[in-house]
Amino acid sequence: MCLGSGSSGNCYYLGTEKYAILIDAGIAGRSIRQTLKNNGLFGVPVRALLITHDHTDHIRGASMVSSIMGCPVYTTEEVHRGMDHNYGLQNKIPTASRRNLVRDEAFEIPTTGFVVTPFSVPHDSHDNVGYHIVWHEGDKTERFCLVTDCGYLTPDVVKYVGMADHLVVESNHDVNMLMTGSYPYYLKVRVRGEGGHLSNDECATLLRQTYHPELKHVFLCHLSADNNKPDIAYKTASDALSGAGAIVGYGGITLAALARTEASQIYRFDSQSPESLQLTLDF
Hints:
The protein is of the alpha/beta class. 27% of the residues lie in helices and 24% in strands.
């Protein structure tokens, strides 16, 4: 489930009937708790909070979420250090709740069966990682990947995205809207730079390069409020996937542009029926 995606706050929920994890907590902890309650998910134990990087829109509620859920916070040592210096995080993460990750080293979150591999993603933060997560449903192996706040496409990004059955990927801005819009020049340079964000076209390039027949879900995340529109991001990604030989929509890949400030509905990764094309990422 996506609880929010964009500069106002980012948070993603992945879970089974027995356990769950969160990726990023850029929304107030109380809001995250209430959204999970509203969707019947608060009773599922959250075993881990994974953090991608130390910008406020990804960590604002991290300390409260860790406390409320009783779960440790996993990220790289560099991100933990950056969080300590970010005043957007009201309470620091206690040492006992911190878990340090090493890029490209897989680890299993205790009691969950989720095997997580963090990998490098370029951005102008202390550090930034994407997550590749593998788990088993019966005799099936499912592979999930999240890449957000990505300045440019790297071999690591292409590698891990190319292994995913279910993908959350940044499609931040339309280049023309950004360059002709109201942002000051320095901010346009920052967004387009190597420490900035993926455009719709760059996201489309990534999808064309990495499409494979096992890809089932693509969720476009971190859309700009000022420099993008969901229908533009969707069409750009859809055209790229179709050009690579994919069927988009009923009977094929589920493609959706995630809302910035509203929770999605629950997407079940074991189903591609029309009824499943809605909110959360619940597998």
